[in-house]
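lol so apparently i was supposed to do this last week
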Amino acid sequence: MSQIEFHNVSKIYPNGHIGLKDINLSIDEGEFVIVVGLSGAGKSTLLRSINRLHDVTSGDIIISGESITKAKGKKLLEIRRNIGMIFQTFNLVKRSSVLKNVLSGRVGYHSTWKMILGLFPKKDKIIALEALDRVNILEKAHDRADSLSGGQQQRVSIARALSQQPKIILADEPTASLDPKTTRQVMNDLKRINEDMGITIIINLHFIDLALEYGERIIGMRDGKVVYDDLKVNTSEED
Ligand code: ADP
Ligand code: ADP
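anyway here it is w/ adenosine-5'-diphosphate bound
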């Protein structure tokens, strides 16, 4: 069943730049999708539209049957809670511990004052520690976030997204500031999370070789439009 649907979505920025131009797209639960395209093609705009980090200019985006474009208040928070996000520059709170950073993924499940005081129930801590374990950096839980290497910090940000217990993870150029070896580790982590947990993952990349190696479905963008959309042929698949 389709989990994410774009219906004639356009996004024009206030300065007149076209982010997205009449996008129609459908992504199923459990897909592993890589979006490729040159800088300025619209990849970030596409991803940011899915969890409504910005409003689109026209069209509708449906997440699990509900319009995130039209959602307000509690409903919007509820839809967003199911969507984790990973950024190129990690976006961690540098001076906080790894565990505190990961726990911040639980915020959507609580009232704000608890988050401000850092009062998370034991259950949240267990979820956060499990997430750290899944990306193999449990032993760093009490270290300061900025004491970790780039690859480790990106794994913390994956753990933060996981602790949200999302159905969808969006990753905007997650490997752009990493070296080739760490890039592979992060891509392998994301792939494993998709396979083991069934979480839908959409990754923006600007390297086509990496996309071809990992993507089960590759979406190519140019000038705000989808110019290519294909499932990679899997020869071992029968049906
Ligand atoms: P990327 O290609 O990874 O999206 P960019 O360097 O294009 O990165 O953009 C970095 C940030 O600047 C993003 O938050 C993007 O939304 C914003 N941005 C990009 N182009 C413009 C622009 N022309 N005017 C204002 N902000 C922009
Ligand atoms: P990509 O992620 O593929 O590099 P973007 O989605 O960042 O592409 O950018 C698509 C187009 O939208 C570009 O022309 C870019 O300059 C413009 N753009 C992106 N973010 C902003 C912004 N915040 N303000 C104005 N223009 C932007």
